[in-house]
Amino acid sequence: MIEMHNGCICCTLRGDLLKTVKLLALEERYDYLVIESTGISEPLPVAQTFVMDASEGNDGEEEEGQDDDGDESKTIVEPLSKYAKMDTLVTVIDAYNFASILGTVESEADREKYFGSSDDVDDTEESEESIVQLLIDQIEFANVILLNKVDLLLDNEKSSSIDHIKAVLQKLNPSATVIVPDKPKFEEFDASKIINTNLFDMEEAQESAGWLAELAKPVHTPETEEYGVGSFVYRNDDRPFHPERLAKIMNNFGTSLVKNIVGRKEAAAADDDVKSVDKNDDDIFSSVIRCKGELWLSNADACPIEIHSVGRQLVLEPAGRPWIRK
Q1: pTM of the shown model
Q2: d(CA 266, CA 269)
Q3: Contact predicate 287/256, CB 8 Å
Q4: In sequence order, what are the beta bridge partners of 147?
Q5: Tens-digit pLDDT profile for residues 62-103
């Protein structure tokens, strides 16, 4: 496993991705390479990496120079596809939070923008990109879509919820294969459903409107800037967390996302209910969309506590192993 961090795989780390894939291919030890990007990355620029120059010393941008006689000379382009081909683009959908996040697409203008209008009216008004736009981009460019966290859906609504999600995905990407794993957390999942499928068509992708629009940009805008999403790592082994104080912090995780959804879907809600959401709006943790890691709690000193949160969904559970060191 090779980890690339402190940058965007689509721009600042693109040169590293080019070199790493090429070097792994030249080793001739591996049959398949899985590239796992963050949840806020756009898949299209990653796919474009495979048609960029992977020659020595080139970070993906073609250069022109002059030879010894002063004549212009062109750099020999060596595309990454010479060493590796794109096989499948997979998007993992959080089935538990999917309806809530997509619930922000409620206005008529939004629906025309994302799902199309029966009158074919073009929406030319520019608007700030949002998380829901990123989610839809990831869906539209995928070959395979996996539904995750289906086990968290209510039993009496699970079947209808899955059917609804599939219908929305079919509208956004009719050609994608939608897979619902039989067991939670992809236990005993058949990897052949997403590996060596040959579903990705580079020629078709290069003719898509999104591909051409991305090429027209002077530079790729990092997702952290385009969607206003940042990330950081917190490390501290000097003292454990106080459980009650930590609970107060985590109680505000994702409340800004909830406020956005409530404001769009329940505009007629009671004022006191809205104020109860607004109270948390100034909290630094109210905009946390995702967190993942291990905690040291003062009242659970025997082992690490794993934490996973997505929006307002939060899971805390023992790691199942003792501390190696603190």
Answers
A1: 0.64
A2: 5
A3: yes
A4: 93
A5: 444 455 555 555 556 688 888 999 999 999 998 888 877 765
- In angstroms, rounded to a whole number, what is the distance separating the alpha carbons of residues 308 and 326? 20
CA distance 218 to 206: 18
Examine the pLDDT at 123 and tell me if it is beyond 80: no
Is the pLDDT confidence value at 121 over 80? no
**Token pair in block for residue 283:** 């909290």
Identity of residue 152: L
Q: Higher model confidence: residue 61 or residue 254? A: 254
The residue among 296, 292, 306 whose CA lies nearest residue 239 is 296
Tokens representing residue 171 in the block: 């509208």
More confident site: 252 or 24: 24
Q: Is the dihedral of CA 91, 96, 99, 100 positive or negative?
A: negative
3-state DSSP assignment of residue 64: strand
Residues 6, 222: Cα–Cα separation, whole Å: 12
In this prediction, residue 38 carries a pLDDT of 74
Q: How far is CA 147 from CA 143, 152, 153, in A?
A: 13, 12, 12
Distance CA 192, CA 196 (A): 7
What torsion do the CA atoms of 144, 315, 133, 210 make, to the nearest 10 degrees? -30
Dihedral angle of Cα 163, 164, 169, 172, to the nearest 10 degrees: 140
